[in-house]
Amino acid sequence: MSQAKLEQFRKEVRKCLTKAGEKYGLEKQMELVKIRLDIKGYRCAGQAVRKGFQFSVRFHPDAIIKHWDEMVNDTIPHEVAHTVCQMNPTLGRNHDAGWKRVCRALGGDDSRTHDMVFGDKPERTECWYRTTTGELVDLGPIRHAKVQKGASYRARGAGRIQKDGFVGHTKPDASQPEQEMAASTKAPEQKTVPKSTPKTKSGSKAEQARGYIQNLIEAGQSKEQLLTDKGIHAKHLYAALEFGTLGAARSCFVANTNKLFAK
Questions:
Q1: Are 75 and 113 in contact (CB under 8 A)?
Q2: What is the pLDDT of residues 228-248, one digit of tens each?
Q3: For residue 15, pLDDT beyond 60
Q4: Helix, strand, coil % (nearest 5) of the chain?
Q5: 20, 80, 14, 10: which is closest to 50 by C-alpha?
Q6: Going by DSSP bridges, is the β-strand pair 34-36/54-59 parallel, antiparallel, or unpaired?
Q7: Which CATH superfamily groups domain 2-105?
Q8: Residue 41: left if φ>0, alpha if ψ -120 to 50, beta else—which one?
């Protein structure tokens, strides 16, 4: 049943692409647009992608199954309108007035966001550490991986978080034996370490932030639009990458947005 529904959705997308081609003189180009039902996660319902002269529209299969009417009536024309503007930027860009005119002409409601619930929000893995002063701290998976590679973090008012302080993915009993706590607070060995642990390119916050920003750019976001919404994006990065402060997440977002548009 769901597979048949997805195939019917493909036909609806192709119908809208054909309509757009006839309306804006892009018949040949629209015939080559690929339809992909491969978006994952729980936020993005649709996306228009351009790579050079190749165009595709992507959709979330779970959103299609659960929210058929909204996906067909709003999301399809929304993304096809982006494709039209990508092929002919004189008609509009991003979510500006020109794009809105195209979206409405294709039957969409020109809204920028949706309130659909779909997909599976990934469960966060707990990574419990006992600090050098014996306090229990739960690190996110990104920082946990860095600590296991040799990094260390300062816990506010609770000593430092180090590799040998890891106690498991389940919170231990607060009444842990004294000797175990003592073991976790042993004096550190005397050894020479660099002042800071270099970040690997693939695992750095900046690299992951640029990947997040690049996805927004490919979805049609302009530099001005991204910087206008920097507060919203900073909150997302703050939660996803575990920045120390919201201000740090905002600075990272702005700096890397400028860097990507400077290329």
A1: no
A2: 988 888 887 877 777 878 888
A3: yes
A4: 50, 10, 40
A5: 80
A6: parallel
A7: Metalloproteases ("zincins"), catalytic domain (3.30.2010.10)
A8: left
